[in-house]
Amino acid sequence: GDGWEAYRAVRAGLEIQRALDRRPVAAAPGLRVRVGVATGEAVVDITAGHDGGHGVASGAVITLAARLQEYAPPGGVALCAATHRAVDGLITQRRIPAVAVAGKPLPVDVWHATGVRAARPARPDGPLLGRRRHLAAAREHLAHAVRGPGPRRVLLVGPTGSGRSRLLDELMHTTPTVDGVAVRWCATACPPCPDDPLAPVVGLLRPLTGAGATPSAPALAGWRESLLSLARRQPVVLAVDDLDRAAAAFRRQLDTLVDRATADGLPLVLVATADENADETTRPAARVRLGPLDPVTTGRLVRRLLPRTGRSPALVRRLLPLVGGKPGYAMAYARMLGVDAAADPSRAGGPTLDGDATRPLPVPESVRRVVEARLDRLDGPARAALMAAAVLPGATAPELARALGWSTGRMAATLGTLSAAGLLVARRAGRLDFTDESLRQVAVARLPRAVRAALTARTARTPHR
Fold it and tell me: I need a surface site. Which of 47, 71, 285, 301 has the fewest CB within 10 A?
């Protein structure tokens, strides 16, 4: 998956209810349904999906979703705690008292989804550290494109959390001119699962319609001509954040616009951010690739962010392996710690979290969404090996092979794939370690306690973390 499955599921539940409100069933005009959404792992058999059949899914999460329906009001959508966390900030929700659910020993927390929050992407506000070389490269590619000979597409690519949105923001606000000529920036962002595939067009037209105005229907219909007309008067830069999330219709029209500008010799340039694994475009493009920050720069960034949270500087050492060189992760942990301290001021700088090195820091939901999507993209054997390595930190390849009952050859090949993907690294004496501690924590949390115990029992050594 891509980390937005829970959001799509809740959106689908809300849309079912809206569809029934708009077009009631003639035979049962008062018909209302209840929807339950639960998030977790399930066993899916897709072999049944032929000749008009459907795949079969089973597991505790399926049963929980079915039970939750009972606690949704007619025409409502009920969410479990995991779904609530996954869509927090994206879906408006109302908590109800915990309920008893068959098969669960303790009461289950439930939320009712009440609507979709309006997408208002916040401007990245963290300090820009360790990216000056990337900023200079992006600025040079932009100037080359505006002058004419360079590709009219500049892509800032990197994994989620690498700070590509922050780099785009810095480029926009520090490059008002190229060769002394004023540049008109038209910025937009591509939200997940938009109601309208061309929704990002509104942002691109905002410099023409005014900050608070909504473009008219004729303006939206002729948006490409409007931008081409503007490019005949001055250089235009289209800044598109998260282009890899854009609908195919918007990407096609955007490509057509840039191609026309290139053919007509107009100074119109697309500068976009995208995931490193996304197929952003088949057209010629200059790329600026963002890797992880080095440990020293990561430490400087975390030290700059911690004062905002009211937390002790002692947390720097604990946050470094969790951040893994990703500025976006650092911001997510800082926000989480700041909110936690605001909710309970007694925790700010206190020993309950800052001084207790044995208590793991929770993974922020925005980071968890990214990490779980990364896990889901692995094939079955690679995911099994990675989860075994998470349960047995510092294990060697033979120990992991013994834990899973695999041959050493099969384990060596799978670990080679995980190492090539940058997920695992071999330390001294062949001990394997995670490059991303947040990934290890999420992988461990996915496994039931009984499975973790069984993996540990199959090895001769005990996890030392």
Answer: 47
